[in-house]
Amino acid sequence: xxxxxxxxLALQEIDQDVLRLKAELIRIPQLQEAxxxxxxxxxxxxxxxxxxxxxxxxxxxxxxxxxxxRKDTITRLNNQQFExxxxxxxxxxxxxxxxxxxxxxxxxxxxxxxxxxxxxxxLKISEAEAALAKTQGxxxxxxxxxxxxxxxxxxxxxxQEEQRVxxxxxxxxxxxxxxxxxxxxxxxxxxxxxxxxxxxxxxxxQVTPATYALAQSGSAxxxxxxxxAILFS
Length: 233
Ligand SMILES: [Zn+2]
Fold this sequence. Notes:
Elements lengths: L2 H81 L3 H83 L3 H13 L5 E3 L15 H9 L4 E2 L6 E3 L1
Parallel strand pairs: 1-3
Antiparallel strand pairs: 2-3
The protein binds zinc ion (ZN).
């Protein structure tokens, strides 16, 4: 392999690493956000469970007030019944008392049902609290791990960028320009192997026998006829 192609290949390895590290450093905060998002879902579930419980408590209070009002009415009717001297009115008031007692029974049954619902909802709250605590643990751990990974990658990146300066310093200016343009255009595959079937491993198109022969001899730099990649064999 030509010395300059060898040097380019070494540079390309560093540049590919730099590219990979930079992509990972962009991805890490996104992963941290996604982890926090999972926490938001559990927080919402807990707040929903608490809201449902509160709503049910309001319902219970309402029923209790209704029971109280009905009971007051019964007391009032009982007093009226006690005071009346008319038989017909006495009977009528008695029937009203029975009707109101029926209403109180219905309301008290409803209250018992709501209290059972409250038990279920209380259970849901503790389940949601447990789920949130569990997720919080995972999320904290994951965020810390990602933080460590980011620190590692940053230090790797700094090292590679330092090595890049040395690797790039030995490459001639024109060749460097060509390489840089190709590296960007070919997404990191500027200097590639051409296979024995004459296939460029950057674009996978077959090169001409002359291009292939040039890549083999190394008498000059050989470029892929299709994508322009620098070839070696
Ligand atoms: Zn090609």
